[in-house]
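sorry for the late reply, my laptop died twice this morning and i had to redo everyting from scratch. anyway the thing you sent over, i finally got around to it. pasting the sequence first so we're on the same page, its 105 residues, then the predicted structure underneath. double check i copied it right bc i was rushing
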Amino acid sequence: VCVLSIVALNALLLTEGKTKPKCSAKDATNKSHCKFPEVCFCGKPTNRQGQRLLRYYYNHTQQRCRNFLGSELGCNNYFTREECRSKCLRPLKNSTDKIFDGSSE
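ok and here's the structure:
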């Protein structure tokens, strides 16, 4: 039982925050397309005011939400990891947000 718990915990830690979004829409060339809020592709927010608040941002190259110490300024800046995930790890369906259209084969 203990070994199974350790294996399950390791699997959870390895996949936590690294889920690649699934896209189901296909274009004429049969490529999948995802549309994400443009703010998810801003860089890591900078700490302009010297504040040390625990915040989260989406690292699009690693496809995961990361924490940082900083302020509430800038785009791609979330209060919680869950807020970051809900905004940036799920492709948009119908939204008025500005979008980034990425495609994959």
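The chain has one domain: 2-104.
thats about all i looked at so far, will dig more tmrw
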